[in-house]
Amino acid sequence: xxxxxxxxxxxxxxxxxxxxxxxxxxxxxxxxxxxxxxxxxxxxxxxxxxxxxxxxxxxxxxxxxxxxxxxxxxxxxxxxxxxxxxxxxxxxxxxxxxxxxxxxxxxxxxxxxxxxxxxxxxxxxxxxxxxxxxxxxxxxxxxxxxxxxxxxxxxxxxxxxxxxxxxxxxxxxxxxxxxxxxxxxxxxxxxxxxxxxxxxxxxxxxxxxxxxxxxxxxxxxxxxxxxxxxxxxxxxxxxxxxxxxxxxxxxxxxxxxxxxxxxxxxxxxxxxxxxxxxxxxxxxxxxxxxxxxxxxxxxxxxxxxxxxxxxxxxxxxxxxxxxxxxxxxxxxxxxxxxxxxxxxxxxxxxxxxxxx
Length: 356
What we know:
Radius of gyration: 21 Å
CATH superfamily of the largest domain: Vaccinia Virus protein VP39
Largest sheet: 7 strands, mixed
Structural class: alpha/beta
Strand order of the largest sheet: 7-6-5-8-9-11-10
Oligomer: single chain
CATH architecture of the largest domain: 3-Layer(aba) Sandwich
Distance between the termini: 55 Å
Number of helices: 14
């Protein structure tokens, strides 16, 4: 039964989209890719991206439609399962008949965000009904494309607006690989939430900073652009290769080496559940883990390396953030960045030691 016009939406379906039925060609490609994604759910995201790039039968306007549908199947899998155990058929039903008016079960909010019940319960309790529903709808959408300005004196072919001293948000899609500003290292892709962590570091020129979980190095580059003496390390060699390439393009001195000795500040952007970046990585729902032991070990290690530690995650769960940090020390300063409030992805950061 379709909801009565003007009736309040059911909580379980509050984040569901109103998609248009895709063409037969898109449906054939989506169903083929979806079966491959289901074969290895933990790697569903990379598989989706690679298969979409390889789908030569799709035109430039069809590929985003297919990508949105595949991402939607993951983003809304718990809600879609209420309609049909076959998620693809549930999606087609959503296109053709709209959302059925089914009663809310006790775990309705967890179903709406397609996360485990305990995650839904925490967000509902922390945020309250209005903000929690706003979060569900935000996580079901696309994330903005934000850039960090590393060096001024550039132009872009698409409109954008500035955010703060170093951030900008694109107002239209573009291929950054052909933009001179990107190719010449004036700007780098970095979400505004991630940029807020860089700004929280409070670096001054010459400060010795260790980026302990650097990944591909977005924060390392931003810190180096501010004049910090940056050393970066990660356990993933491929990520460090990407960091080296980005540093060369940006013409910024970032030393890549394992930590040794003392530093003025250690940044720990710890591995986490990724609950704050579900817009970009909906597949995190399928590989949900809470690596709190690793997070605690990294934080303890960082505390021995510097008088000031900046701990950060892209998680929105207290067990990985507030609660874990307080097992070590009371933070001097901390912030949780919620997507539905601030627009960027979800992040948490806390400064331990030093001054606010």
